Amino acid sequence: MKWLHNLLKCFSFSAVLFTFQACYGDDPGYDYFDEIRFIVTDESGKCIPDVDVHLRTSLTDKWSYIGTTNIKGTTAGSDIYSECDSLWFKFTPKDYYQEKDTVVKYSGPAKYVIKLNKK
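^ thats the sequence. predicted structure below, dont judge the formating
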């Protein structure tokens, strides 16, 4: 262990920190991504299953598929890059409800309730 101590003495403190950062890095999973969830209901508050949810962020122009609502009308959590300022969502039901688009001003992890109207 003394040899490691002598080896590290010949480097500056910042060089040692840089080496540890380069080898081990930091975990971006907690700092850069947040989770967003949706509950999709009709006008009366009844949950709607089988609604496809798509996302487009301010960082990209492409729509990406997030998931389909389950029997309780909820989507699984989706990781959102925390540098986004606006999020565009498209809800496409497989039933007799109207498709809905909405824009969310992004402010961190959240759960949103989306109400769909009948055709």
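Confidence is low (pLDDT under 50) at residues 28-32.
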